[in-house]
Amino acid sequence: MSSRYDGKVVLITGAGSGLGQASALQIAKEGAKLSLVDLNSDSLEETKKLILEAVPNAEVLLVTADVSNEEAVKNYVNQTVETFSRIDAFFNNAGIEGKQNPTEDYGIDEFRKVIGVNLNGVFFGMKYVLEVMKKQGSGSIVNTASVGGIRGVGNQSGYAASKHGVVGLTRNSGIEYGQYGISVKAIAPGAIMTPMVEGSLKQIDPDNWQEVGKQFVEPNPMKRFGKPEEVAYLVAFLLSDQANFINAVVIPIDGGQSYKY
């Protein structure tokens, strides 16, 4: 029985941990050839190890890159095409949270850094992958936004601004490129227990971050953190041909966290 990703080439940024790693593993199990991008080469190697343990014959390209650097983005796109000849699906996922401070105390350099990765990086990725997909006449892109891109997030000006920007880019590009057989959508994760979220909780209280986490999810109707694997199942569906008619939208995966907004 064939899998929905047999023969497909999937490019994933931020693949060294969290949502990117979980999605890479899930999509590899479904037959994809993978091009995996991350700033941390050791983390990329760990992801590849996990994939090959699960799928021994998987084809995996690793590219170390800073997604906030336009030339680095062009390079990972070019390497993917040179290796696999095409890009069928793109999980444009790499991101950082940044430091937490009220807006008046939020550092200018910190703001630029977060925008550079979370918004510029997403734009660069879309710009150069869309060129490839337009020539192919097909493709699917999923950008990682956030519940913070749907509503505000206290003490995280850079993060909230960047994720609102991702939502705008997603909707805009979906409108522009649907005519070329390309769908563009975003996911808006809520409280998912990833290394980034753990780091966020430790910023608030390094010694009692787990207790802070319990308080953080209390308003959520499901009263828990989501798992990266739960997001990976959604990403695998949205990037597949089964979701081609889902376009220019943002899909929350947050246990109902955004229900009151």
Describe it.
The protein has helices spanning 18-29, 41-54, 70-84, 108-136, 157-177, 195-204, 209-217, 228-239; strands at 9-13, 33-38, 60-64, 89-92, 139-144, 182-189, 250-253. By secondary structure, it is α/β, with parallel strands linked by helices. Helices cover 47% and strands 15% of the residues. The mean pLDDT is 94. A seven-stranded parallel beta sheet has the order 3-2-1-4-5-6-7, with helices on both faces. It comes from Metabacillus sediminilitoris. Its EC number is 1.1.1.47.
Q: Could you name the key traits of this structure?
A:
oxidoreductase; 7 strands; Rossmann fold; SDR_fam; 8 helices
Per the CATH scheme, the topology name of the largest domain is Rossmann fold
| Overall form | globular
Please give the order of strands in the largest beta sheet: 3-2-1-4-5-6-7
The CATH homologous superfamily of the largest domain is termed NAD(P)-binding Rossmann-like Domain
Number of helices: 8
Major pleated sheet: 7 strands, parallel
Rg (C-alpha, Å): 18 Å
CATH architecture of the largest domain: 3-Layer(aba) Sandwich
Beta-strand content bin: 5-15%
Number of domains: 2
Helix-residue proportion: 40-55%
The residue ranges in which pLDDT falls below 50 over 5 or more consecutive positions are none
EC number: 1.1.1.47
Pfam families: adh_short_C2
Keywords: Oxidoreductase
Enzyme class: oxidoreductase
